[in-house]
Amino acid sequence: MAENTGRSIASSGYMLVRVGIDHPLADVRGYAYEHRVVAQEAIKRPLARGEHVHHKNGDKLDNRPENLEVLSAAEHRVEHRHSGRKRRLPGEANPETTCACGCGERLTVYDDSGRFRTYIQGHNPVASPARDSLLNALRNGPRSVRNLREQTGRTASCVRTILCGLARDGRVRRVSHGVYELNNAVEVENG
C-alpha cells in the first residue's frame, strides 16, 4: 500500500482512501473504501447496517456519485446475480411444477430459500457405482468389510462410509463386528 499518497487499491479491487482513524468507516490504519465514503456523502447520512454500495457500471474504481447507489443486501444480490443461476427474485412468483422423478407429486419451483428445484426432497437418487457394487457383493450373503474392500476395489474408509449410510437407511444390517448383510425385507421393496 502506498502510504504517502493516501490512496491505494485493496486486494479486493476497491479503492482505499486515507480518512483518519476517527472516521466511522475507517479501519485501524485510518483507511476506508472510497465508494462507501462517497456514497455516504451523496445520501447525506451514515450508511445503515446491511446497506451495500453498488457500482452501476461494474467498475470498482469508478467512484463518481452518479455511478454509485445504496442498496439493501437483497437488492445488491439481485444486481450481482450470475446468468445461469436460478434463484427466485424478490417478489417473483413461485409457480408449481411436477416432480421430475415421475411420481406425479406437485412442488413449488423455488424452495423457502429461493433456490430452484425440480425434485421433491429425496426423490432424486444420486447414482453411486460404489454403493451399487457393495450392494451387489452383499447379495451373495454376509460379507466382512475386508472382503467387501477386496471385492469392490474400494478403500476401507469408503466401504465403511457407504455401509454406515446403507445401515442408516435400513438397507443393510450388522451381523457381527465388521460383518454386514442385506436387510432382505427392505431390499425386496427396492428391487
Keywords:
three-stranded antiparallel β-sheet, alpha+beta, 191 residues
Structure overview:
The chain starts with 6 loop residues before the first strand and ends with a helix. The model has no long low-confidence stretch (mean pLDDT 86). The chain folds into three domains: 7-79, no CATH class; 91-125, no CATH class; 129-190, Arc Repressor Mutant, subunit A (Orthogonal Bundle), CATH 1.10.10.10. The protein is an alpha+beta fold and 191 residues long. The chain contains six helices and ten strands, in the order E-E-E-H-E-E-H-E-E-H-E-H-H-E-E-H.
* Number of helices, counting only DSSP H or I runs of 4 residues or more: 6
**Mean pLDDT rating:** 86
> Helices and strands, in N-to-C order?
EEEHEEHEEHEHHEEH
Our count of domains comes out at: 3
Structural class label: alpha+beta
How far apart the termini lie comes to: 65 Å
Number of strands: 10
Strand content: 15-25%
- How would you describe the shape? elongated
Our Rg estimate from Cα atoms comes to 28 Å
Order of strands, widest sheet: 1-2-3
Low-confidence stretches: none
Helix content: 25-40%
Largest sheet: 3 strands, antiparallel
